[in-house]
Amino acid sequence: MKEQPLYGRVALVAGATRGAGRGIAVELGAAGATVYCTGRTTRSRRSEMNRPETIEETAELVGEAGGRGVAVAVDHLEPGAVGALVERIDREHGRLDVLVNDVWGGDPLTAWGVPLWEHSLADGLRLLRLAVDSHIITSAHALPLLVRRPGGLVIEVTDGTDTGGYRGSFYYDLAKSSVIRMAAAQAAELRPHGGSAVALTPGFLRSEAMLDHFGVTADTWRKAADPHFRASETPAFVGRAAAALAADPDRARWSGQALSSWGLAREYGFTDSDGTRPDWGRYFEEVVLGGREADDTGYR
Questions:
Q1: Domains (ranges, CATH) in the chain?
Q2: Residues 21, 29 contacting (CB under 8 angstroms)
Q3: Does residue 70 contact residue 89 with C-beta atoms inside 8 Å?
Q4: Tens-place pLDDT, residues 103-132
Q5: What residues does 236 pair with on adjacent strands?
Q6: Residue 83 contacts by C-beta under 8 Å, 6 or more apart in sequence?
Q7: CA–CA distance from 138 to each of 13, 95, 101, 200, 239 (Å)?
Q8: Which residue of 159, 219, 229, 267 is 20 to 30 Å from 19, comparing CA positions?
Q9: What SUPFAM superfamilies does the database record attribute to this sequence (predicted)?
Q10: What digits encode the pLDDT tens for the residues 146-175?
Q11: Are 283 and 299 spatial neighbours (Cβ–Cβ below 8 Å)?
């Protein structure tokens, strides 16, 4: 029988419709957890992202992986809706062990290489609402349930670590940096209650949207126009990072830190779904920043 270190645990993945959120939800399920998969896109209604992936599909994938997936349509900018979600989790399980704040939705609102004064102010502020305010609202409602038992874990999904440079867009950079600081702040507030919080970044993510962007599929991804995409990773990789953290009885040692999928893969020994171990951090530093010809040899 497959080992399930998170059997009996309850997780909430806010923003589980696709990408990293879906990957994390599925891998938490593979480890045995009950996973509440939330988002705005359902089989009957799409969000402003206008993507085909749905929370119901994510919940089904959680079940297929060995866990129990529960799809709940929630706009995490609506405090009442988030409060009702947490009340439901409390009513059905009386506990919350893992909270993953992955709500994003800012891709169509980000203008790359455009200075602050030329960027749409309305788009920028909407991006911050989606990517920052939603996380705050979710934590504010969920943490009272999470701290009821010692050992609770909050994972704030971001892009990059706190050692990185400017991310190419004022609002995008502010959003992702804010999430890292939120993890550090929640770590400080959770510590007296026996809880932990971390920020977690994937590498170059082979998400559904990125595959579509490059006009490739999960089977033909190495043919993408951007040669650096060959060093990418699937959402399962960051999902396994999250699951490894949640299953680690000594996870408090990471609390307050900004972690990466590739760094945790070295620590815990997991691989991506193809059996490789992508190291985007070293690749980015040595190849992308180093100006070398794109080649992922030696970085898996």
A1: 10-288 (3.40.50.720)
A2: no
A3: no
A4: 999 999 999 999 999 999 999 999 999 999
A5: none
A6: 141
A7: 10, 16, 8, 17, 20
A8: 267
A9: NAD(P)-binding Rossmann-fold domains
A10: 999 999 999 999 999 876 688 999 999 999
A11: yes
- SS3 letters across the chain: CCCCCCCCCEEEEECCCCHHHHHHHHHHHHCCCEEEEEECCCCCCCCCCCCCCCHHHHHHHHHHHCCEEEEEECCCCCHHHHHHHHHHHHHHHCCCCEEEECCCCCHHHCCCCCCHHHCCHHHHHHHHHHHHHHHHHHHHHHHHHHCCCCCCEEEEECCCCCCCCCCCCHHHHHHHHHHHHHHHHHHHHHHHHCCEEEEEECCCECCHHHHHHHCCCCCCHHHCCCHHHHHCECHHHHHHHHHHHHHCCCHHHHCCCEEEHHHHHHHHCCCCCCCCCCCHHHHHHHHHCCCCCCCCCCCC
pLDDT in tens, 35-91: 999 999 999 999 988 899 999 999 999 999 999 999 999 999 999 999 999 999 999
Strand 98-101: give its sheet, edge to edge.
Answer: 68-73, 34-39, 10-14, 98-101, 153-157, 196-201, 258-260
For the beta carbon of residue 42, count every other beta carbon within 10 angstroms.
16
Q: Which of 104, 99, 191 is nearest to 154 (CA)?
A: 99
Give the integer Cα–Cα distance in Å for 60 and 37. 10
Rounded to an integer, the average pLDDT of 200-208 is: 97
At residue 213's C-alpha, the angle toward residues 218 and 35, to 5°, is: 60
Query: For the packed helices 19-30 and 235-247, what is the interaxial angle rounded to 10 degrees?
Result: 50
Which one of 7, 36, 171, 172 is the catalytic residue?
Answer: 172
Sequence-distant (≥ 6) Cβ neighbours of residue 255 within 8 angstroms: 187, 190, 191, 196, 197, 198
Assess whether 172 carries a catalytic annotation: yes
